[in-house]
Each structure stands twice: as C-alpha cells, then as structure tokens.
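hey can u check if this looks right to u? its 105 residues, i copy pasted from the old doc so theres a chance i mangled smth
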Amino acid sequence: MVKEGSWVEVHRIVLEPGERAPQVPEDTKKVPLEMRVKGYLNDDAGMGDEVEITTAVGRVVSGKLTAVNPPYDHGFGEPIPELISIGREVKKIIGKEGDMRRRGR
C-alpha cells in the first residue's frame, strides 16, 4: 500500500497508435503516445492502481501508479569537447571587456 502524499509516478497512454496525427513519421505512428508524470499521491493506493496525483505545480493528473519515490534519470549525453572550455573562454573575454569599460575605452 502506498500512502497518500507519497511522491510517485503515474503512466497513461495518451493516444493509441491508430489515433496518432497523420503527419507524424511512420515509425512514430506504430507506437502509442505515452505520458509519465511525477507528483504527490492524492489517496492511498496499490501499485498498478488507477490513481490521481497532484504535480509540483498543482496540476491534478490521473494514471496507473508505476513507481514510488521515482528517481530522475535523464541526462544530456556525452560532453561536447568544444563546449567544455567555453565557460572559461567567455569569462576571460568578459573579464577583459569589463576591464576596458572600467578604463573608459
């Protein structure tokens, strides 16, 4: 039993494959449009039950209870070598420009 107020994730099929828009790519048309949303459980429930949750911004969403205390597991991929040093380079440029402005140039 999962207690009311627990941080959970729900899952719901928003559109079945036959309901997808005609302009979506062929491979996309073959799969359902799925939704996964995290929020606070509105009432006690069991895993797999249809439930309502309230998201962090106060939206009420329904779906099948799939996880309790779900982690955030997304990432931004591997670092791009050209971007690794750009922060220092920009600060160096801004620092020089800042010095020039203070000197009245």
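The first strand starts at residue 7 and ends at 15.
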